[in-house]
Design brief:
By secondary structure, the chain is α/β, with parallel strands linked by helices. Helices cover 37% and strands 11% of the residues. The protein contains five helices and four strands.
Length: 168
């Protein structure tokens, strides 16, 4: 199973989601691959995650300092089994960037794993103080647990079949 987490700049939400998911995948003994990306035309490409995302991750025993931001591309739909957008605007940007490559069976809002069909967004903590990063961590942690519950029982050697139709 290959999972991609996507936010706007790939420095706050999606790297934190990638780090949390990597830890859970490792703990569950799953051989999944994780990555993250941003939709803003390379604004932060090559940068490490935001210092508050790194701090909050570290408080939970997760080191995301080696991650580097990259841009989301349409080719990501050929590379990943599931692509989770952190917010509705990011999902729309993914559709725009991908054009014909967009595959609604693979893409969804991350919080639909917790709140099916409610299309909730993970708040962007970028402009706020540190407590917002802790709230984002809590939401991402719960959503990643839901992903493990949903897909973790499938054969560890194969990616699960993607359901037809999107819940977004």
């Amino acid at each position: 199973m290959k999972i991609l987490m996507v936010c706007v700049g790939n420095i706050c939400r999606s790297p934190l989601a990638e780090g949390i998911m990597e830890q859970k995948v490792r703990q569950a003994g799953l051989g999944w691959e994780l990555d993250s990306a941003g939709t803003t035309n390379g604004y932060h490409v090559g940068e490490a995650p935001h210092h508050l995302s790194q701090k909050v991750a570290k408080l939970h025993g997760i080191d995301i300092s080696r991650q580097r931001a990259r841009s989301f591309t349409g080719e990501d739909f050929q590379q990943f089994d599931r692509i989770y957008a952190m917010s509705a605007d990011v999902l729309e940007q993914m559709k725009s960037i991908s054009r014909k490559s967009y595959d609604a069976r693979k893409a969804d809002l991350l919080l639909n794993e917790l709140y099916p069909g409610q299309n909730r967004s993970v708040p962007d903590p970028w402009y706020g103080p540190e407590p917002g990063y802790h709230e984002v961590y809590r939401l991402l942690d719960q959503a990643c647990d839901a992903i493990i519950r949903r897909y973790g029982g499938a054969s560890k050697a194969q990616a699960p079949a993607v359901e037809s139709g999107s819940r977004s």
